[in-house]
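Postdoc handover notes: sequence design on the structure in folder B. Input tokens:
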């Protein structure tokens, strides 16, 4: 999905600038905040990963779920569910819904090899649209998954069976 990724990065940058224009009518304030956010984006290079999306959305003080829908509404995914036990955040989170990485990867529109590399390598991160796809395929609000993976607070999950 390299074309999707590069197109989404461009859309993201446009959405950031549009949001800044709406929030800052003063030219100096707008330019200062734009430069601050552009520096954050530049630090990530061409990697439009989940952490970058989370940091910038928080800097903009936008609703992450709404921002996700604005940017990723065209992303395709399927819905899943199941359980298991693991140790790191991504593994723990995934284990609540499925024992099959392949099922999850397919449902979320992520290459299974890539999902495996991200889970096993702390130097690699999910792309922002992949976090969105995971959340949607698992029936979650995207903001909750972004907060869980990249936020500072500790999370406790409870599952209610119906």
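Designed sequence:
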């Amino acid at each position: 999905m390299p074309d999707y990724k590069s197109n989404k990065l461009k859309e993201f940058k446009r959405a950031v600038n549009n949001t800044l224009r709406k929030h800052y009518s003063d030219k100096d304030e707008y330019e200062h905040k734009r430069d601050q956010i552009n520096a954050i984006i530049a630090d990530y290079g061409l990697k439009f990963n989940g952490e970058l999306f989370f940091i910038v959305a928080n800097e903009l003080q936008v609703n992450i779920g709404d921002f996700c829908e604005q940017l990723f509404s065209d992303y395709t995914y399927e819905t899943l569910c199941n359980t298991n036990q693991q140790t790191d955040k991504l593994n723990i989170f995934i284990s609540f819904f499925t024992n099959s990485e392949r099922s999850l990867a397919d449902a979320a529109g992520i290459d299974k090899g890539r999902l495996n590399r991200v889970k096993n390598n702390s130097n690699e991160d999910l792309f922002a649209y992949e976090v969105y796809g995971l959340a949607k395929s698992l029936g979650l609000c995207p903001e909750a998954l972004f907060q869980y993976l990249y936020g500072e607070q500790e999370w406790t999950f409870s599952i209610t069976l119906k």
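Context for whoever picks this up: Residues 2-61 form one domain. Don't rerun without checking with the PI first.
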